[in-house]
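Researcher: We're reviewing a set of sequences before deciding which ones to prioritize for further study. For each one, I'd like a predicted 3D structure that I can look through quickly. This is EF-hand domain-containing protein. If possible, include the structure in token form so it fits the rest of the review sheet.
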Amino acid sequence: MPLYMPKSINLAINEEHFKAIFKEQDTNGDGRLSKEELLKAFEKLGSRNPGWRVRRSLHHADIDGDGSISLNELEELVKYAVKQGYGVN
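Model: Here's the predicted structure for EF-hand domain-containing protein, in token form for your review sheet.
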């Protein structure tokens, strides 16, 4: 038995898995991720400060500036999450 057993293991995931994680948080089905939906997504990804991460992700990925992430902007959101080194806990 190992001396140290981590509480969670961070597994690397690919961009398609990120898209699926973000899309499943679109709880109202409008094709856009609101701030609240992004918060849930970053919580699921294990962010230590998901509120801050939402603001930063909107800064990087919200191209039209409407305060949400559309399907057209999802690619930029995924690039941001990958760049930040996110995985699934």
